[in-house]
């Protein structure tokens, strides 16, 4: 679990669950649907999680791009579709960090089927921050 703080604002991030935001609190008041990261069993139960390399469902886990069919990972139990990419199901590594902000990276390949491997970089910040 990674904790970011800015004054009374506190954010818990679970890198092992795709960099999911487990919760965001102002003092003891949850700002988002919040579960302490240590109690979080699934990214789907987190306050929010990364949707990379795509969001929403892709029907029958198959994408056609420029006339070529690309199979995707069926990644939600018995559901026949691909949903929200695979970034939320892969551990994330922190590439830069301060007390108030962190940048995450994860790779969606080359072990998965799909159009191409990708790397997602996601910033997280708590409080007023300017990204450079």
Automatic annotation (TrEMBL):
Residues 75-132 are annotated as: Disordered. It comes from Ramlibacter terrae. Residues 105-125 have a biased composition (Low complexity). This is Aldose 1-epimerase. InterPro entries: Aldose_1/G6P_1-epimerase, Gal_mutarotase_sf_dom, GH-type_carb-bd. Pfam families: Aldose_epim (PF01263).
């Amino acid at each position: 679990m990674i904790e970011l703080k800015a004054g009374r604002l506190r954010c818990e991030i679970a890198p092992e669950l795709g960099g999911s935001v487990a919760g965001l609190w102002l003092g003891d008041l949850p700002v988002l649907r919040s579960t302490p990261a240590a109690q979080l069993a699934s990214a789907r139960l987190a306050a929010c999680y990364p949707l990379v390399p795509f969001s929403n469902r892709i029907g029958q886990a198959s994408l056609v791009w420029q006339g070529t069919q690309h199979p995707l990972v069926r990644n939600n139990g018995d559901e026949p579709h691909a949903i929200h990419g695979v970034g939320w199901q892969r551990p994330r590594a922190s590439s830069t960090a301060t007390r108030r902000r962190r940048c995450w990276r994860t790779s969606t390949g080359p072990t998965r089927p799909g159009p191409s491997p990708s790397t997602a970089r996601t910033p997280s910040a708590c409080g007023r921050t300017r990204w450079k």
